[in-house]
């Protein structure tokens, strides 16, 4: 669950945000240190080479500083704000690489979702064969389904936020996740799926 407005992390982020808008370099650097690795991990899931990821991150934070005086007075969720801005940059780069002729072609992207070492808990509870079946089942999902699952269960975003990040209606985001879970449940069983989702919730 994302932090409510009364949480210490929300208060901290808002203080940093106001500091950034006022030209406080320390606040800007604090935002960078807090979120850059999280953003890098997200960006790498789009199968971009490391130099491209670094370029997107550099562009994001440079623009954040350069346009600080024009930033909104408040952001409800700083991590979500940065993720959305980064995702937009990633898709602009993908569009340039693939020369998408139509906006609908933006669905043609890769999103990596695995059950690797980031989930040591499930590796202790599930047999190697179960993990292999789970990985195979995950690869059978669409790219949007993988990203939706990642955003909802690993990062804890609401359906509304998942929908906004993916650029779809909230009901469409719900349907994406519902169908993805149904497919996984059919291929690996409820118990394995439950352990996987629990491991992600604890790792996120």
CATH homology-level superfamily of the largest domain: RNA polymerase sigma factor, region 2, helix turn helix motif
Known CATH architecture of the largest domain: Orthogonal Bundle
At the first level of CATH, the class of the largest domain is: Mainly Alpha
**Shape estimate:** globular
Strand content: under 5%
The biggest beta sheet reads:
none
Number of helices: 10
Report Rg: 18 Å
Structural class by sheet pairing and helices: mainly alpha
Order of helices and strands: HHHHHHHHHH
- Name the poorly predicted regions: 99-105
**Could you please say which CATH topology of the largest domain applies here?**
Rna Polymerase Sigma Factor, Chain: A
**Distance between termini?**
10 Å
| Number of separate strands | 0
How many domain regions? 2
**Share of helix, binned:** over 70%
Kindly report the average pLDDT value. Answer: 83
């Amino acid at each position: 669950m994302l932090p409510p407005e009364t949480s210490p992390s929300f208060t901290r982020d808002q203080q940093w945000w106001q500091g950034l808008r006022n030209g406080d370099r320390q606040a800007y650097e604090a935002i960078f240190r807090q979120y850059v690795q999280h953003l890098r991990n997200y960006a790498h899931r789009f199968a971009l080479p490391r130099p491209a990821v670094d370029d997107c991150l550099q562009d994001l934070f440079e623009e954040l500083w350069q346009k600080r005086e024009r930033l909104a007075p408040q952001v409800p969720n700083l991590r979500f704000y940065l993720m959305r801005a980064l995702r937009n940059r990633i898709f602009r780069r993908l569009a340039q690489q693939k020369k998408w002729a139509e906006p609908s072609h933006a669905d043609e992207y890769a999103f990596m979702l695995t059950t690797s070492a980031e989930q040591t808990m499930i590796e202790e509870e599930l047999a190697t064969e179960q993990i292999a079946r789970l990985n195979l089942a995950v690869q059978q999902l669409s790219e949007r389904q993988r990203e939706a699952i990642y955003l909802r269960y690993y990062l804890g975003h609401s359906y509304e936020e998942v929908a906004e990040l993916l650029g779809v209606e909230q009901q469409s985001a719900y349907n994406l996740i519902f169908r993805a879970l149904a497919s996984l449940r059919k291929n690996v069983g409820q118990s394995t799926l439950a352990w996987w989702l629990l491991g992600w919730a604890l790792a996120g």
